[in-house]
Amino acid sequence: MASIRERYWRYSLVALILGMGVTVFIELIPFLGGLLGAATIYVLLRGQMIRLTEHRRWRRGPAAWLLLGEAVLCFLIPISGIVWLVISKVQDVTLDPQSLIASVRDVTRVIRVRTGYDLWQESNLREILAYLPKLGQQLVEAIGSFAVNVVVLLFVLYFLLVGGCRMEAYVREMLPFNRREGGDVLREIHRIVRSNAIVIPLLAVGQGFVAWVGYVIFGVHGTLLWGVLTGFATVIPVVGTALVWVPLALYMGLAGQWGQAVGLLLYGVLVVTQVDNILRMVLQKKLDNTHPLVTIFGVIIGLSLFGFIGLIFGPLLLAMFVFCVDLFKRKYLDRPARRRSPDAEADAGHRTPRDGF
Prior knowledge:
This protein has 12 helices and no strands. The chain is mostly helical. It is elongated. The two termini are about 50 Å apart. The model is unreliable at about 340-355 (pLDDT under 50).
């Protein structure tokens, strides 16, 4: 009777934990970007925190404040500047729709002259004008969500830096692995988060800068904006930066600038793409050995689940799945000969040398 009651308490507690956990997770979905961003920056600053507190004997509070300032200067200010550049361009369009209409009219005129097909129709114009208020509303919501998540990131990051070691020890004890395997899981998480958090921004900056140089050389208008968008396009699997420079080259060709269009197209294929391959190979060789398929499909999964921060945590989720499958295989399927069942050992004893096994 006592065992039944104990099982009832145990299963009830598990059900209660799961129910409250799901509720808390659903309520925290709007702040998921800030929470995952804080975890990412914590992994990057974890080594510095250990050196300051354990080697230099700093108190954890002042050390956390120092690293929080470093995070603001090195991570949040550059990211906020880039986001604000893109948002300001979109805001100009929503506040001055006539400029957008004029640009669309010019593009459709070029297409009509070159192909004979007229895209400038009354129905298309009405659809564009009807979408602009929705775009403005989405823009305001995006700015508010970004600001809230930045505050959440800083708030959570401070407490992660102050109590990170205790938190990691607690998580290690809660994992369904022994002590050695739990340590392997945490090291794998640190490695993947750190490598993705470093490799992805460096690739974006490198390709964005190289593409910006090409845009300046071949006379593309708005080179800074297109360079930033090219950097963002780096994270899109398979197609990547071609989403930006291929349409630009096509537009320049339709506008009659065939020499510049062909030059930009060749520059994108021979320079921008090769820079991506070289940088990716060098950086991943130094920081990570994750299979490219894990990265590609992880980014696809992460973007749909977590948004922009899924660029880091999507590959982590897929890599941890592969890690757990490999751990299960090594622990339960690849049993050594000494752990075989008695029946298997008896069958092995009856085999003759001619069986070959």
